[in-house]
Amino acid sequence: MIHGCLHPRPVILDFDEPAGGHAVVSTTKLLLTLSLMTAFAYVSLVGLMYLAQRVLLYPGASATLAPEHANWGENVSISTPDGETLHGLYSQGESGKPSVLFFLGNADRVGNYGFLAQPLAARGIGLLAISYRGYPGSTGSPSEHGLLTDGIAAFDWLSLRCECEIVVLGQSLGSGVAVNTAGQRPAVAVILVSAYLSVLSLAQTHYPFVPVALLLKDPFRSDLKIAKVRQPKLFIHGRHDEIIPLYSGEALYRTAPEPKQMLIYKSSGHNDVWDDRMVNDVIRFLEARNRDAT
């Protein structure tokens, strides 16, 4: 007699997870999340720098004109071929004496150079300093093409106004404008203060984590243009220049053709390079050039 059914015991298959399985998955997700966040932050930073690069390169373009500083020369207006109007200050030189065409740094203002205009005027030497397009008193927006156009327009204006020999002087960002102008117009000499090999090389030095060569709009390749500048050249640079390192100016100097000379101020940086010594060095260079020409 069968009193009940036999129920087979259930077979339970127990597959244990490998030890630490949850930890492996969590760590992988965390690393992936961190990688995505880092990539997003990098792309955002690079994108922001790309969009803001001209604000960084041309900080003086956001300034306002300070008439109280415009006290060393005549206010002049210069028209460019593409329809912009440039503000400038001009001190007329004496007949038979050269005039200096001054291209400033990226955050500078034309009214700041009375200390240079006055000793030049005392020797009969003229001075024209221009405010780039988009800078105080000038129309337009700054760009490399625009500034190079401004340089040529200023040279042509000065050559008609004074009918004199013109020495081109460029400081910092303006050194690139000076190199381009002297390569295309008959300047008799060139003075380059705190000059760079190129803005491209400077940007690569300051932002090594950014693909600068692909993103930079205004490379200012003085290294590719200096060969055309065969006039006498004076390079001046501060040994402790923290913005345009001395090696960049020296590299441009080595690339430049003769005749040339370089003065290195051992105690100067970038923003303190102008002092009485430098004014005197500039005047000596100008007067020596004038003696050689006569």
Would you identify the CATH H-level superfamily of the largest domain?
Answer: Alpha/Beta hydrolase fold, catalytic domain
Strand order of the largest sheet: 1-2-4-3-5-6-7-8
Briefly, what CATH class of the largest domain? Answer: Alpha Beta
Mean pLDDT, all residues: 89
How do the strands and helices of this protein lay out in sequence?
Elements: H1 21-57, E1 74-79, E2 85-91, E3 99-103, H2 114-122, E4 126-131, H3 144-162, E5 166-171, H4 173-184, E6 189-193, H5 199-206, H6 212-215, H7 222-225, E7 233-238, H8 246-255, E8 260-265, H9 276-293
Parallel strand pairs: 3-4, 3-5, 5-6, 6-7, 7-8
Antiparallel strand pairs: 1-2, 2-4
Helix pairs in contact: 3-4
Features:
single chain; 294 residues; alpha/beta; Rossmann fold; 2 domains; 9 helices; disordered N terminus
What does this structure look like?
The chain crosses the membrane at residues 30-52. This is Serine aminopeptidase S33 domain-containing protein. It comes from Phyllobacterium bourgognense. InterPro entries: AB_hydrolase_fold, Hydrolase_4. Keywords: Membrane, Transmembrane, Transmembrane helix. This protein is of the alpha/beta class. It has two domains: 24-57; 72-293, Rossmann fold, CATH 3.40.50.1820. It contains nine helices and eight strands. An eight-stranded mixed sheet has the order 1-2-4-3-5-6-7-8, sandwiched between helices. Strand 7, helix 8 (246-255) and strand 8 (260-265) form a beta-alpha-beta unit. The longest helix has 37 residues, at 21-57. The N and C termini lie far apart (142 Å). The model is unreliable at 1-7 and 11-15 (pLDDT under 50).
